[in-house]
From TrEMBL:
<dbReference type="Pfam" id="PF13343">
    <property type="entry name" value="SBP_bac_6"/>
</dbReference>
<protein>
    <submittedName>
        <fullName>Unannotated protein</fullName>
    </submittedName>
</protein>
<dbReference type="GO" id="GO:0015888">
    <property type="term" value="P:thiamine transport"/>
</dbReference>
<keyword id="KW-0732">Signal</keyword>
<dbReference type="GO" id="GO:0030288">
    <property type="term" value="C:outer membrane-bounded periplasmic space"/>
</dbReference>
<dbReference type="InterPro" id="IPR005948">
    <property type="entry name" value="ThiB-like"/>
</dbReference>
<dbReference type="GO" id="GO:0030975">
    <property type="term" value="F:thiamine binding"/>
</dbReference>
<dbReference type="GO" id="GO:0030976">
    <property type="term" value="F:thiamine pyrophosphate binding"/>
</dbReference>
Amino acid sequence: MQIKNTRMFRGFAAVITLALAAGALGGCAAPATKAVALASHDSFIIPDELINKFKTDTGFYLEGGAKLGDTGELTNKLVLTKDSPVADVVFGIDNTFAGVAEANGIIDGELVAIDYADVCFNYDKRWFAKAGLTPPTTWRELTDKKYAGLTVVQNPTTSSTGLAFLFATIGALGEDNWPLWWAKMRDNGLKVTAGWEDAYYIEFTAGGGEGKYPIVLSYSSSPAFTVDEADGESTTASINSECFRQIEYAGVLKNAKNPEGARALLAFMQTKEFQAAMPGANYVYPIDESVELPEAWAKFAPASASFVDVSGLDFDANRKKWQKQWLEIVQG
């Protein structure tokens, strides 16, 4: 299995669509079923209008499949069921688990990049203005005593967001120094939650609840969703320095019951219409850079220009070890 990890493929979706159409006109045998089953992580959404368009454009329709937890759970469950997969196509294996998919041979052909997100910290602009405190410009500053008791993150053993940031600290600081940074964060009043929703919506001061923490681990896209209608300005901002770029892939599963339908869905996910829906439906950036971002995204949620190079990290060999180390450091 290979990973197709390109961020620029203008016209590629059209080529695939034409190829599928040509195959159909050329007298290919009709598949046994028109139903296509999709496996994904829990948070993936395809808008109804795109589900209907997929059926209209291709003759296939979405039916069955399953949402299988977070990215790690999704990948691991597909490995366990690879001889008799629960779906025809998968969406949501990311660059931290792509190696697991490859090592276990669960993909027929290539994993294809569909979207990306930049994991980074967000802060509450109003809180900092009221406190008369200058916001941090990098996560390395969060160990400073002036930011004591202000930060909430997710547990990397239970959250893909938390795990991505753990990898970012390891990539940026190195094997010897990342534990020291986390120990300083622990001593600086770090708050840890199980998942992103609790951190953002409950603990974050700008998350809509009664949170006490004005700095939260989230995404560079998040400020696009905190725009105040009264003045048209976002109440939050992201710290777009040394982020973790999380790339999500889709692929046809080996032993799929409807591989032709799965390939049609994979091609459909790369069309401009599908790509344009990704920001609003899933809070991620389309992998096709020719797709125009929504106005609020362009203004308040640009993708990071500074992200950590983690290409030298072996996620699969070290994931459990690093998670255990983190638990010992942060939670004792």
